[in-house]
Design brief:
Order of helices and strands: EHEHEHEHEHEEH
Structural class: alpha/beta
Mean pLDDT: 93
Strand order of the largest sheet: 2-3-4-5-7
Low-confidence stretches: none
Distance between the termini: 24 Å
Oligomer: single chain
Shape: globular
Strand content: 25-35%
Number of helices: 6
Radius of gyration: 16 Å
Helix content: 25-40%
Number of strands: 7
Length: about 180
Amino acid sequence: MDKHLHTPLTEDNSRSLKAGDYVYITGTIYTARDAAHKRMQEALDAGETLPIDVKDTIIYYMGPSPAREGRPIGSAGPTTASRMDKYAPKLLDLGLKGMIGKGKRSKEVLDAITRNGAVYFAAVGGAGALLSKAITASEVVAYEDLGTEAIRKLEVVDFPVIVVVDAEGNNLYETAVKEYADQA
């Protein structure tokens, strides 16, 4: 089912999404990859506040290429989400409601998704140039020294994603394989 979602991603909104839904996100999302997640974890371990408020936020696991003239960002495809798995449960417990990436997640992340009424979305890998067209603004908001791995605030309009793991723990990667096997 196609759904249009405006950020922030509240728990009511996240719980209304089901694995397999096509979702078009409009509003503010943030980017963060390995190095930024490591810094955020170090900040939390030191008792410091995070550079962004993760409550009801969506983090996109993406490192953009340089922007072309007249565009706010270059190619903006997803990176492998499992690289953030050791950091994600803590952020989910702090109120993060959505993550966008590609690939499977660990049991610890899946448990944290259901525990916190969150959702994991997939963006299509290899379609970074197309995905960048849904990004209307990009601003580095933390860890500028990390270059493409800095935390960015993105404004998006109808950013296309698919719900892979919903707030109830339904996992499209598992159910789709089962459906395919049942049809064979």
